[in-house]
Structures are given as structure tokens and as C-alpha cells.
Amino acid sequence: MESIATLLARLVAERPHLFSAATVKVSRGDTPRMAALVAAVERVVALPAYREHVLAWAPEIARHVPPNPGVFFGYDFHLTPSGPKLIEINTNAGGGLLAAWRFGRNDVEQAFVDMFRAECAGPLKALAIVDENPAQQYLYPEFLLFRELFAQHGIETHICAPEDLALCHGGLWHGETKLDLVYNRVTDFSLAAPGNAALRQAWLDGAAVVTPHPHAHALYADKRNLVVLSDDALLAEWGVDAETRAVLADVVPRTELVRADRAEDLWARRKGLFFKPATGYGSKAAYRGDKMTKRVFEEVLAGDTIAQALVPPSTVEVDVDGALTGLKADLRCYAYRGEVQFMAARLWQGQTTNFRTPGGGFAEVKTE
After folding, report:
1. Model pTM greater than 0.90?
2. Contact call for residues 64 and 215 (beta carbons, < 8 A)
3. CATH top class, domain 94-211
4. Are 276 and 286 in contact (CB under 8 A)?
5. Mind listing the pLDDT tens digit for each residue in 150-182?
6. Residue 217 per-residue DSSP state
7. For 192-223, what is each residue's pLDDT tens digit?
């Protein structure tokens, strides 16, 4: 049987564009601005008016309020000459442990373990990492790394599909193991698919801690929330303090809802906009307006979509097969309870972030 080190090495080798050898440099001034944005968002999300507003367009299940905030929030930024700009917030941000492991950040690995323990009111003895067809996922090596890390801390860990879970005897089970927690990596954010039925009910019943969860996604990751976070007048009406509003105005690009009655105006301004589905992930169905065809625009109008002021990513020169190549870069802040734990960059070519680019992938961040 392969050792965990050998298995991880083999799986990473099968994903040659998972990590980049490049380093992304971030100015000392940008780092606190990103941390200030994360804290500012947390203050706004705590407001009853904000919660009422964004839960109005969320699925019913998101109104269930759990005691745990959720792990692995990811704040994605583009770095510009005028400072970092928030592109989106995720509540299912993968890759953090892989990047920390690759870049030798043992302190971050410990922080991640502490984070999972903090999600539980009682001891964390057994958990499951759950995703559809987990062994087929691109970030499957991270699941294995988590299992190894948790084992070092005495936490029994299972990797399974949601269909492998059973709700019975007052708890959520995987085989003969009663689970204290599910690390939820499925991208069905409302847990509506039939295969997620046991996981969904366990979350609603409190039979196990589920993290991240639908409530967190609705409060943070629905991209329509960026419309709110970039609306200074609305925030002022809710009583958001001037300092918080100044941070948001500085870092969150203006975002608007795409509506059919504004089609002519949006089409005329499309070259300065980036279009994204409200509940999408992984850059699926996301389009730069200057590269959008009329047919695609008509499809976008028919869905729940936002249009964000276009903020082109910065570029980093990377040696690819002996030639310097400019790759696009974004920076992800992994955060928990409003505080940044770790930063990693992602490098790519093309319209949206991917792990298909020679020389691209997760890159180490250096502050200068």
C-alpha cells in the first residue's frame, strides 16, 4: 500500500498545473486593506437589516440559523495600482490546506485544525469530508491531506459521497461511525439534490455539525450580495458607520443586478462589466462583457446574474519552458470569523481562473 506521502506526490504529479513555481508579491499596504475588507464585511453581515435583505432572495433552507459560522471562507481579490479589489466571496474555498502544505506553513495547518474544533460545541472525534465522487475531484489530494492532518490530532476522518451518509439513531453516520462534523465540499449550496437528503436533514435537525452550510452561503457567497456591499446609500440607511462604508467603497467594485428592462443600457456598457451568475462557482458561466456575444448576453438576461465593474487582474512573469510568460493573478484570503488566516495566489491564462495553464496554479504570496 502506498504511503500518504507517496500517494500525495503521485496525485499532485497527475495535476501538473496545481502549483506554480512563481511567487506573487503583495505590497505591505495591500495586506491590511484586504484584512480590513474582511472585517468590514463581517460587521455588515451582522446587521439584521442586511440579513433580512439578502435572505429574501435565498432558498428557504438558508433561513435555518446554525450555531457555527462555517469554515473556509475565501475572499478573492484582484491587485490593482489603486489597491486590492474584491471580486467575490466564497464559502467553499478549496485549496487552502494544499497551499499551506506546499509552502511549508505548519502554523496555518494548526490553525485549520483549531478552526474545525471551534465549529463543534463538544469534542471533535470523527468527521467526514463529503463531496460528489470525491476520488474524481481535482482537489482530491487535499481530502487525503486533511485526513492525514486530522489523524495526527486524533480525529477519525472518512472521505465519502453524500449518498454514503445515513441519518439514524439520533445522529449522522458513515458506516458504523457516528459523525460529529461534516466538512461539506459539495457545490449544491442549498443541499437540494436527492443525493444530499441525509446531509440536508442532519443539518436541519442538528444531528451533526455541517460546515460550510447553506446559511453562510446565503449571507456571504451569493453574488447578489455584492450589489448590497457596493451600495453606499443603502448601507448608510442601515446605519453602517462611515469607516466601514469607506473600506467597502474603496475595495468592492460597483455591482448591479442584471435585469431584462435594463438590457439596452447593459449591452451599451458591457465592455466595462463582468457578468456572473448569482449562485455560480468556479467561474462557470462567467463572462467578460467585451468578449460577450449577443447570443450569450440574451442567455445571461434570462438568469439570475450580476454585472460587476470590470477589474482586470494583475499579471506575473513566469518562466514557462524557458520563456517568460505573463500570467494573470488573483489573491485569495482564507478567513474564519472575520479574520484572515492565510493568503495564496492563483495564476492562469484565459478569461477566468483555472488550473489548466502551464506555469500556473496556486502560488506563494510574499509581502514586500
Report:
1. yes
2. yes
3. alpha beta
4. yes
5. 999 999 999 999 999 999 988 999 999 999 999
6. I
7. 999 999 999 999 999 999 999 999 999 999 99
